Amino acid sequence: MNDQAHGAAETQRNTRIDPITASVIHGALENIAVEMGYKLMRMSYSSIIRESEDFGAALTDAEGRQLCECKLSTPLQSGPIPGYIRGILKTMKARGEELGPGDVIMHNDPYGGASHGPDVAFAVPVFLKDRLIGFSVTTAHHLDIGALTPGSCGIVDAVDTYAEGLQFKAIRIVEGGRRNSAVWSVLRDNIRASDLVVGDMEAQIKAAEIGAQRYLALVEQYGLDTVNAAYEDLMDYSERLMREAIAKLPDGTYRAEGYIDGYLDDPDPGRRDLKLVATITVKGDELTVDLTGTAPQVSDKPINMPLEGTVDVAIWLTLRSILLDSTIYGNIPQNSGLTRPIHIVAPRGTLANPTFPAPVIARFCPGNQLADTVMKALSGVVPRQVSAGIGNLRVVAFSGLNEGAHWVHMEILEGSYGGRFGLDGMDAVDTLYANTRNNPVEDIESHLPLRVERYELRDDVVAPGEWRGGIGSVREFAFLTDAGFAVEGDGHKYRPWGFLNGGDGKTAELQLHGKDGRDVDLVSKVPYHKVKAGDRLVSYGPCGGGYGDPLQRDPQSVLDDVLDGYISAETAKASYGVVIAGGAVDAAATAKARAARA
Predict the structure, then answer these.
(1) Whose CA is closest to 114, among 132, 90, 148, 95?
(2) Alpha-carbon span 445 to 398, nearest angstrom
(3) Which residues does 588 contact at the CB level (< 8 Å), separation at least 6?
(4) Rounded to an integer, what is the distance from CA 506 to the centroid of its chain?
(5) Most buried residue, 243, 307, 329, 339, by most Cβ within 10 Å?
(6) How many other β-carbons are positioned within 10 Å of the β-carbon of residue 457?
């Protein structure tokens, strides 16, 4: 019996209701979340939601346990939603406030479950008569949240959370169906490009209200006890699958280290070359991830990671992807049951568990590198289920004024995956806990004073391996007017790790070419920087690590890479021992070259 069939059999033996009804309700819950996501995308104003899909949508029970999530959303948006609800409930209880029908709660507290301040949640409580039975929640990244400089990414110099923008801690933005006009006025008066941002917030509320209506209709159709029994069974099923996957691992302790750039141009050594440590202990069907040894928090720079909302999501997503690969297990109910066997230890005062008010708005790249470190820790025990090191992402905030009105744009610049057993690394894609899409060039150029001069793969920088590393992209933006930009990135110093004799990947690069002819190499984190019309910003994305001995790579695959222009014939011989002549593999010369190298 395979794993999936065994899990199904276990579900049938230990159920509160019949499996068919549970499956129907599971499908209905997922459809509600997907509908919420599609409605949010269709109603949104900004490309970061409409095109990049940087949003989350989910239903929870009354305690905040996740019942389902929208598959279109990014894990870093949907994953934290249970934490948002716990933060809301805790804050409101401390104030002596109670929820009521028709309420809408806004929340973005990074020390109260949120991932970081720009990811604002709108939660609609669902009532069956007078009983609170759950929440319908949407989250989304907003292009400005009222920080010191324009944009909500690229804020890499905030000294504390207050400098990162407006903080909303369980704010009742709609009460009993009536809008709180004072809060809406504060939003419009303190956020740049307010029509765009507030329009996105309105879309979030409407999508969450649709989800609440659909969930209530489902409960009224089947009865609350039946729906509750169905999702309890679904959570138990997801938990059993995770426990079974963990139990297959040999008991033991597995450790890995990684590094982030930090602030490479800062004279303070406590702000650069920062260590991440993941020690994974497997015992039976439970697993503990201990982050002891991770660098201390940087108290006046925003690269710290909230434990709840960023660190936990990075760990859960990585373990779920490695241990319960969807290509093997199929559609697994995505709910809070998956996280029950996983425990996280993160010492207070470290990058992975900062103390208030340490700033956290630029937590994305460190969190993605932490996920990569967790994967590295498991590489020795499940080598065929991991990739080599990933090339991290970066985010650029473009902004300016047009006749006195602010324009703001956020561009996510993709990274790349390392090679995997049997497969080359994926080129120019979001990695690990991010799965946003790129913005079409046509969309950028039709709405903004920017022109995309280049969008292509990098040349001849592939990490060699039996399965090569993924290739990063080149993006070149020309400014058509005087404007500004800021960059939140990483990976300019530390190369993605190669695995099993595969080559290390290629670091990222960032350059500013001035209209006046002056060229400047930039570090991975750039505070708000003014530019003139005609200046150009060029980003070279990182390339993932190689997997396996390059001398074992299929010569035909090497030839394909040469013909596709990914590598040169000279690189084919130097890295793989493959001799290309006349557009074909010279088999005899290749055998000789490889024998000499071996």
Answers:
(1) 90
(2) 13
(3) none
(4) 21
(5) 339
(6) 19
